[in-house]
TrEMBL record:
Lineage, uppermost ranks: Bacteria, Pseudomonadati, Pseudomonadota, Alphaproteobacteria, Acetobacterales
Name of the protein this chain belongs to: RNA pyrophosphohydrolase
Enzyme Commission no: 3.6.1.-
Function in brief: Accelerates the degradation of transcripts by removing pyrophosphate from the 5'-end of triphosphorylated RNA, leading to a more labile monophosphorylated state that can stimulate subsequent ribonuclease cleavage.
Motif Nudix box positions after renumbering to this chain: 44-65
Amino acid sequence: MSPLPYRPNVGAVLFNQAGLVLIARRADMPNAEGHAGGWQLPQGGVDEGEDLRVAVLRELAEEIGTNKAEIIAEHPEWLTYDFPPELQRMRMAQRYRGQRQRWFALRFTGVDGDIKLDADPHPEFDAWRWARIEELPGLAVSFKRGIYEELVRAFGPLAR
């Protein structure tokens, strides 16, 4: 068990009007079309003292180029995952054992054209699409799969 702390993090399950969820392909995995782990939900770190609801909208703006969304639900618990051994050389893994996440369900209030992955000079994602929430666990890397299964259970009813 690592003595390192978990990095505080927020995640977004962004639903469109049809009840589909936005997933995005990591820019560092462009050939991951059919592979688990290449696609994920927007998520990111929380600044010291930052309100979690503010943080999730900020992360959406940074990662997908828009924060045109309204929060419709918050998962009641912090969910955690540890970084696997193959990521231990990653700079963040040298400071944190993994991530401690608070997840939010949001309703997208914009149009698809509002999503601009290149809004950041160093985009995290290079493609995005709408998916059924039930697809999430199959898209996740193994160390995040349990969290995505929990998100399907907790937020799945919102897709209807």
